[in-house]
Amino acid sequence: MTELLPDARADTRARIEQAALELFARKGFEQVTTDEIADAAGISRRTFFRYFATKADAVWGDFSLHVERLDRLLSAARAEQPVLASICAAYVEVNDYSAGDLPMLRQRMALILGEPALQAHSQVRYADVDRVVAEHVARRTGESPGALLPRLVATSSRAAATTAFEVWLADGTTTLADDLHAAFDQLAAGFPTLRSG
């Protein structure tokens, strides 16, 4: 058997993801089979399963690389940078997509955030992000990653990022980076507009 070169593997993975997202957008997630995705991508069913265990995994793409990059950015954060600022900066950098990638990102995020069948799958992915952020907070505070503060910062910062994605998808006029910054600014300031009567 001939092994595909890394570039060829990346091209095949991207072709599968694109085919899956287009089919899901057109027909609905539940109505699409892995065979249909494979046919649309011009590959065999067997090849599909070399890249993705389920059709839900095709929606998320290679999310582990996203989590690894987030972890690297947080590990490299300057010690003098406030914790929430370092998390915001990492989220913004990890989600800095080229203009050409934005249509596919919109398709992907609309499915992730709006498809009920993907919600349980999403929780597994979110847990990986929460773990990385909690470990970062723990390093900075000297607490255990499982302690209340690291876990609270991890889940609340992910909620802020998720809300920013939802606003970006619904609005259509804002940039994702601006929405992420705005969400983290509110979080960091403790929702200042809610403090007065």
Uncertain spans, ≥5 residues at pLDDT below 50? none
The percentage of residues in β strands lies in under 5%
Q: What is the element string, with H for helices and E for strands? A: HHHHHHHHHH
Shape field: globular
Query: How many strand segments?
Result: 0
CA-based gyration radius: 19 Å
Distance between the termini: 70 Å
Mean pLDDT: 92
Major beta sheet summary: none
Question: How does this model look, in words?
Answer:
The protein is mainly alpha-helical and 197 residues long. The chain is built from ten helices and no strands. The longest helix is centred in the last third of the chain and has 24 residues, at 148-171. It starts with 5 loop residues before the first helix and ends in a 9-residue tail after the last helix. 25% of the residues are buried. The mean pLDDT is 92.
Keywords:
0% strand, 72% helix, mainly alpha, 197 residues, single chain, 10 helices
Question: What is the compact description of this entry?
Answer:
The chain contains ten helices and no strands. The protein is mainly α and 197 residues long.
